[in-house]
Amino acid sequence: MGTAAKVDRRVLKTKEAITKAFLELFTIKNLEQITINDIADLANVNRGTVYLHYSDKYDLLDKLIEDHLNKLISFCDPGGDTPLTGELLPVFLYIQDHFLFFNAMLSTIRAAVFRSRLMEFVSVNVKEKLERRGSRSELDDELNAQFMASAFVGIVEWWIQHGMPHPPEYMAKQLQNLFVKNDVYP
């Protein structure tokens, strides 16, 4: 049983090294220019090890995006009982802790796929909250959700591109105020 734990830790460390290498390359090269050999060399693993975990660089990118979006989803309170700051603070802390990923995904012009998926994630979450609380304004819920998703993604992009000049707590509170002001939350 102790051996399985060691193997899991080694696999985890290997995947982390591959991920880190890929993200470092992604910030300086177009995806099409990145090779599995580049990733393997920078991660200090052999090419076969990369293929053991990912079918190709596109699979690696897709799994990274899915993993991070699923973690962001886990911070959302489906019942709506958590105060907004309680949902937003973990999101900003997570983004801060995974700066390399979010910087690579949002700070390059090659990041359209991630940006689109993040927008969809936020707009669906906001729309669900708007529908749960019932119509309180003249604003169309779909348009309000799209507006707030664009605002959220834009704020996160600004925060990352400017080197996170404010702490996550400040960002969560400011975004909460914007959501409240736009009648997304009471």
What does this structure look like?
Residues 35-54 bind DNA. It holds the Pfam family TetR_N. Helix 1 packs across helix 2 and helix 1 (2-28) packs parallel to helix 6. The longest helix has 27 residues, at 2-28. The model has no long low-confidence stretch (mean pLDDT 84). The protein is an all-alpha fold. It contains 9 helices and no strands. It has helices at 2-28, 36-43, 47-53, 57-74, 84-97, 99-106, 112-133, 141-161, 168-181.
What's the SSE pattern? HHHHHHHHH
SS-derived structural category: mainly alpha
Strand content: under 5%
| Helix fraction by DSSP (H/I, runs of at least 4) | over 70%
Tell me the radius of gyration. 19 Å
Sheet of most strands = none
Shape descriptor? elongated
Low-confidence stretches: none
SS element count, helices: 9
Task: Give the terminus-to-terminus CA distance.
Answer: 50 Å
Keywords:
single chain, 186 residues, mainly alpha, 9 helices, 75% helix
Topology:
Layout: H1 2-28, H2 36-43, H3 47-53, H4 57-74, H5 84-97, H6 99-106, H7 112-133, H8 141-161, H9 168-181
